[in-house]
Here is the input.
Amino acid sequence: MTFLLLGIAIVAEVAGTSLLRATEGFTRPLPTLGCLGAYLVAFYTLALALQRGLQVGVAYALWAGIGTALIAAIGVAVLGEPLSATKVVGLVLVVAGVVVLNLSGAH
Here is the structure.
């Protein structure tokens, strides 16, 4: 159940971040409400996952790492951002860091 909550937190955070551009500096009401609502869900479900026993370091590493990779993929696939070798190397390093944290017995 804790990893399901963490998964919901990650998806909600990615949704909120994806809406940031559409808010146009929080001047457009509907995208702004969607963005803020998604972030509210993200932090609430992350807090629930922590309350139910997930360690902060592991939870945050997974949340940030997976979220970063998903946002980068959305940027390339949906927003037309360029995919460079530097971006790929950075994402590989983020994922490697999450894997190392999980394999190190941090949980």
Observations:
- The chain has a mean pLDDT of 90.
- DSSP finds four helices and no strands in the chain.
- Residues 62 and 98 are 6 Å apart (CA to CA).
